[in-house]
Amino acid sequence: MIRLVIRHQSAVKITRVSTTYLTYQAKTMATDTRPKVFVTRRVPVRGIDLLKDKFVVSQWDREDRIPREELLRGVKGVDALFCLLTDKIDKDVLDAAGPQLKTICPQLKTICTMSVGYEHIDLTECKKRNIPVGFTPDVLTNATAELTMSLLLATSRRLKEAMTAVEGGSWGTWNPIWMLGHGLDGATVGIVGLGRIGLAVAKCLLPFGVSRIVYSGNSQSENEQEVNAEFVSFDYLLENSDFILGCCSLTANNIGLFNAEAFSKMKTSAIFVNTSRGGLVNQDDLYNALKSGKIAGAGLDVTTPEPLPTDSPLLTLNNCLVLPHIGSATEKARSAMSELTARNILAVFENKEMPSRLNIQ
Ligand code: DGY
After folding, report:
1. Ligand 1 nearest atom to the CA of residue 136, by list position
2. What is the residue-level pLDDT of the chain in tens, covering all 361 positions?
């Protein structure tokens, strides 16, 4: 096993073109004829290890977002793009990648994103050019469900306020009426979007003794019985839930779904949690709802924009807990996402079914 790894490594020369670019090329070939893939960030190595023998891999080898002009430059002439949710993959990127006759003979053969979300990719353009798109569902489901539960518990039990009290010295004697929160036992939880992640969250909720799980979405889920969830209207969910969780993907139809009207329908004791996309929420309306006591608390792992500016009014509230989009941030999930992205790319060049191809309507 170790000998094999060494042999593979020796077949590939790593060139650092600049402080930001890495290229993995064949050592022996004067002209490397392998297909080219561009990776837009430093990612867990598992994916790169799978690609580097079969592809010339060029990589934006930094932890910060690739600047737009570097993306346009890096994608030029590549056969495959390994991208992230922070990269806007639009017509300009596709144009920059391929030759003029791209609609007849696309040079870019696949775009694979290391994310389950794909709203950053212009799918209409990809479809027009017959470019298959890969994504990474399933492998991050449990990690994201776990983080959703963490936010829900932390927000409902007022952990931000409690920690601030300890650190700021306002923790007095044990007090029977101090720092009271809301528990899950006997609660009604409303999940907006009972997809992969919504369902996994519902499964986590059951052992906490919730009395009802209701959900809303475009259609009834065939998995609802697994968690004894009831399909209800969005309004019913807002009015009757103690906890409201945003677990649906962001589409053109649900931008700003959680707005002043939605918050006004929630219980004043409601806890709102969003681990999907910041675009689902009108943040000014959320701020007003939290500030005025219209709802009790909010936990957000996603915001608009990301990163959330440090002067955002949301950060002044002690009933609002904001995390930096870490839903899938476990070693296991991120490594699996990197691997699945690589496997999606590999499949295209081996004329196989992609393990996770996006079904573009
Ligand atoms: C995704 O993959 O879309 C997630 O938001 C990353 O955590």
Report:
1. 2
2. 333 333 344 467 878 777 777 888 766 656 889 999 999 999 999 999 999 999 999 999 999 999 999 999 999 999 999 999 999 999 999 999 986 444 555 689 999 999 999 999 999 999 999 999 999 999 999 999 999 999 999 999 999 999 999 999 999 999 999 999 999 999 999 999 999 999 999 999 999 999 999 999 999 999 999 999 999 999 999 999 999 999 999 999 999 999 999 999 999 999 999 999 999 999 999 999 999 999 999 999 999 999 999 999 999 999 999 999 999 999 999 999 999 999 999 999 999 999 999 999 8
- Alpha-carbon separation of residue 112 from 24, 55, 71, 97, 240 (angstroms): 19, 15, 15, 14, 40
Query: Does some domain include residue 357?
Result: no
Residue 360 falls inside a structural domain:
no
Amino acid identity, position 37: V
Same domain, 82 and 123: yes
Asked if 96 and 76 sit in the same domain, the reply is yes
Q: How far apart are CA 267 and CA 328, in angstroms?
A: 30
Pair (86, 186) in one structural domain: no
* Residue 144 Cα: closest atom of ligand 1: 7
User: Catalytic: which of 8, 120, 182, 325?
Assistant: 325
Residue with CA at minimum distance from ligand 1 atom 2: 115
Please confirm, yes or no, whether 325 is among the known catalytic residues: yes
Domain hosting residue 317, numbered range: 141-322
Distance 37 CA to ligand 1 centre (A): 22
Are 47 and 185 in a shared domain? no
Cβ-proximal residues to 189 (8 Å cutoff; 6+ apart), any chain: 202, 205, 210, 212, 213, 214, 241, 242, 243, 244, 245
| In a domain? residue 359 | no
Length of the chain, in residues: 361
Residue among 140, 196, 280, 340 to mutate when testing ligand 1 (max atoms within 8 A of CB): 140
Please tell me the distance between residue 6's alpha carbon and the centre of ligand 1 in angstroms. 33
Q: Report how far residue 192's alpha carbon sits from residue 188's, in angstroms, rounded to the nearest whole number.
A: 13
Number of domains the chain is built from = 2
- Mutation to probe ligand 1, out of 89, 248, 328, 338 (largest number of atoms < 8 A from CB): 328
Q: Are residues 151 and 298 in the same domain?
A: yes
